[in-house]
Amino acid sequence: MTRMPLISQVLSFCLALVLTAPLVLLALLSLSPTTGLDFFSDPIHASIDWWHQLLFEPQWLSALTTSLLIASLSTPFAVVIALPLSCRWRLYRDKVALAILIASATVLLFPPVVVALSATRLLQAVGLFDTVLGVAFVHGLMSLPVVALLFVSRLEARPIGTFEAARALGALPIAAGAAWLLAEHRATLVGAIAVGVLTSMSEATVTIFVTDTAVRPVTREALSGLTQDMSPTSFAAFSVWLLGAGMASLFLEKFLHRRPTNHDSH
């Protein structure tokens, strides 16, 4: 295996720095000793009181529970739709499946505010505005193209020898596909679930529009704190989920990753 060229390594490092720097900044700001953003002006008196508040204050525990509930609904929604379509495209080059995947990605072409306003109108029309089910549905639509992109890219990168061997032995397409996924794409499945959860947990703009008083996930509580007293607890909330969950998912995917076997040649 050849080493990555130096320029690629530098670009990868820069990209990683750009992606992680805001999270590190948020984590540092969450250690502020006051309700303002005073960490950098008084780092000696840094405090973890805000993290304690995040984990033990009823308001934040309720918000975390709500966010996890929403993510537990929106992520399966995205995976259940994206995975079969991605498999259909990879295994059979089904153009209808590809067209649906491309259509699902159009949500990324519009500004978040436009998507949020449309989602608000839709949920109000069907009576799901400011409900967990309604928010989960919208988060699922937002996660779908991201999860689909992960599936398509990872499935294309791996051979389909396991699937073809199972089909040759008389297995049904669904059984052969399941065997192929479990043999070759366990890490991809974990990565897709992690991406879906992280997308739901970090979605802020749409969440603000489609919730009011009944549903208060982490992002709404955090942004409410920003408009009230700039509480660093808001930053702690973002940091603990985006940084912690992101790192955990990377480690899980790395642990489950398996190199292609020599007999897979397709």
List its traits.
266 residues, MetI-like fold, disordered C terminus
Structure report:
The protein has 266 residues and is mainly α. The chain has one domain: MetI-like (MetI-like fold, Orthogonal Bundle). The chain contains twelve helices and no strands. It has helices at 6-29, 49-56, 58-92, 95-104, 112-126, 132-156, 161-168, 173-184, 186-202, 205-210, 218-228, 232-256. Helix 3 runs parallel beside helix 6 (132-156) and helix 7 runs antiparallel to helix 8 (173-184).
Low-confidence stretches: 260-266
How far is it from the N-terminal to the C-terminal residue, by CA? 19 Å
CATH class: Mainly Alpha
Radius of gyration: 21 Å
Which topology does CATH recognise? Answer: MetI-like fold
H/E series: HHHHHHHHHHHH
Strand content: under 5%
Net shape: globular
Helix/strand-derived category reads: mainly alpha
Number of continuous helical runs:
12
Mean pLDDT: 81
What is the share of helical residues?
over 70%
Could you tell me the number of beta strands? Answer: 0
CATH architecture: Orthogonal Bundle
SSE order and pairing:
Blueprint: H1 6-29, H2 49-56, H3 58-92, H4 95-104, H5 112-126, H6 132-156, H7 161-168, H8 173-184, H9 186-202, H10 205-210, H11 218-228, H12 232-256
Helix pairs in contact: 1-12, 2-3, 2-12, 3-4, 3-6, 3-9, 3-11, 6-9, 7-8, 9-12, 11-12
Q: What is shown here, in short?
A:
The chain has 266 residues and is mostly helical.
